[in-house]
User: Fold these one by one.
Assistant:
Number 1:
Amino acid sequence: MKLTIIGTGYVGLVTGTCFAEVGHRVICVDNDPDKVKTLQQGGIPIYEPRLEELVRRNTEAGRLSFTTSTAEGVENSDIVFIAVPTPPLADGSVDLSFIERVARDIAGAMTAYKIVVDKSTVPVRTGDQVAETIKRYCKAQVEFDVVSNPEFLREGFAVEDLMNPDRIVIGVRSQRPVAALREVYSPFKAPVIVTDINSAELIKHASNSFLALKISYINAIAVLCEATGANVQEVANGMGMDDRIGRRFLDASLGFGGSCFPKDLSAFIKIAEQVGYDFGLLKEVQKVNTQQMNRFLKKIVDTLWVLKDKKIAVLGLAFKQNTDDIRMSPAIELCHRLQKEGAILTVYDPKAMDKARSVLKDVRFAEDMNAVAEGCDAIVIATEWDEFKKLDLDRVRKTLTHPILFDGRNLFDPAEMERLGFIYKSVGR
Ligand code: UGA
């Protein structure tokens, strides 16, 4: 099928590339000429496992192309996907100006029937506004359908999630666009659920908020575990074996971050407020998340006492593993707060160091994970990179001034760490 994706961020680029990979002809549009140039030359602006190889392969095969022209994309496609950012405003609500701009651009370029599909995470009832905007700015009397088709991919596992989705949600006002959307997704073996547009939009915010709730729940349980000598991983394993609960997203941590959960939670609370419901439950989810970081910091202060002039090594800067994304990263927040207390930092991340340079000042960037601890008073693990599990613990222990390790991601076994001679503090164990 002939598809256009507007916006080449995480969602747009991965979606466009995977659509091309299964045989569709895809035009990706972005208004940033530098980004488009990089993509045309086979480079990708983000780190995402497998993505670069897939972009190259599909560009070479002629199924995937990049342009700055929305008109070119709209003209040459039957279906236009909107995948532009929906960033937060100061009051927690969503800035929909990119969506509105794109809706107008699409309207201006339409000369025949198009299906306009929203993939960005948007507040419920945005689809109605998009339809109204297209109708208003469309030059000719062209027919169109607006569809809501939220995306559920996780950064770091984006290609895998897109290729093997749990479900595909298609929100429509009429049945007319359904067959075409089913065809787009026919190569992906996943159940398709067709709903009205408002329900589809709500499914996305409700899912993300529920996952954030799951994390805050286990983080609250972690507090109880610490107070009672229980082990949060054992508790999560025991809970997770119940199919109704499930083990995933029950890993205690120093809190969730990233460009989705914090923003989507605030947005959902605001959306509820606008329709007259006080979503107190989600406010607690936010509160637990803030407290989690405070508790972890307190653990560091309680152990090291005065942080001023203490040398601390921090492993991990990305908001999670397998990505170079540092937006709303708990690891970066931790670095800033340690610096505020006067600590001197050496940091390392397998992929996020370049991006971190713009937000972290006066830190030393280490060459590799095993060198980060040299001459430091303690080491902190802030991101759950798999490779950190292979840390040369013997070397790290010897190079630290004191063998103190704070593990914000529970990567190591407490008993084993003690046996190795570490003072080891993790979360909920
Ligand atoms: C999240 C959702 O998982 C995706 O389904 C959704 O499509 C995406 O938002 C989005 O709205 O675009 P993402 O933000 O990429 O994906 O990352 P997650 O894997 O959900 O992790 C979010 C944060 O929660 C990270 O900081 C992670 O370290 C933390 N986390 C995750 C935990 O602290 N504990 C867990 O058990 C799981």
Note: The chain has two domains: 2-190, 211-425.
Number 2:
Amino acid sequence: MEIKKVGVLGCGLMGSGIAQTAATAGFEVIVREVTDDLCERGFAGIEKSLGRFAEKGTITAEQQAQIRGRMTSTTKLNDLADCDIIIEAIIENLETKRETYRQLDQICKPETIFASNTSSISITEMMTATSPERQQRFIGLHFFNPVPLMKLVEVVRTILTDDDVYEQAVEFGKSLGKVPVRAGDKTGFIVNRLLVPYMLDAIRALEEGVGSIVDIDNAMKLGCGYPMGPFTLGDFVGLDTTYYIAEIMFNEFREKRFAPPPLLKRMVLAGLYGRKSGRGFYDYTKDAKNPTPMNLL
Ligand code: 3HC
């Protein structure tokens, strides 16, 4: 089966980025959100991102219009019936995901590949909500924020994934302009397995007075050539998301390095989620481009 039509579930930061990337690569894309308002918000973000590529000359105004023309949105799961692959990027809640997959399994054609963009939930646990035939066509496709720019996609297989389906998913990742890496269905896959303990260690270093927010960020940015220091990155990813992933990883492996530090928990409880809420390790409310470090200790 050739992949021509891509269904994307969820039009938040990741879903909209995945939809934009697939449409840019020439696929027909349909995005499903739960309300029209959420569809509109997601598509406004896509317009903005495409506008940035057009401004830079990476794409022409004509290509921008063509990419936009390949994308539609819907609030009905039934509209995804004829998709060749479904990429799910909805809320990180196992039950919600399982229920959505259960319904889609009835709606989609037997050949449709089901993929999840989850960062930390087990693919196997989602897969078992579908029929035995579909379980062989169930994989993880984990993208990175901002999806239109980040070159990596983790292609995740379970114990039951069919070899041909897996290879097709790897090729699909390439056709999106990404570099696919192969990973097994182990919580955190490759990137979060290594990234999450690093981010949590940075918070522990801050708690222990090793350095300030700015100094630790500068140390890793300028000393290691990382594009962002760990606190800027945490604010960018979302501290609620980081906390949630760490909790899942800690519950899975029961290893101290995945345990969320008390400061992270308190920040999340206090609504300091990072950029999206205006404050995290930095305060973005006055000048988002030049945020000031928060006094957290
Ligand atoms: N769409 C289009 N263009 C965009 C864009 C978007 N969404 N976001 C940024 N850009 C463009 C900007 O317009 C800018 O263009 P220019 O060079 O022509 O001015 C260029 O990208 C660089 O952007 P900025 O000047 O704003 O900032 P940076 O140079 O710092 O680049 C970044 C931004 C690419 C996000 C870079 O900082 C970076 O790579 N950061 C690390 C991101 C990262 O690690 N992501 C992974 C997070 S982990 C994850 O997602 C997994 C999950 O499971 C937790």
Note: The first strand starts at residue 5 and ends at 9.
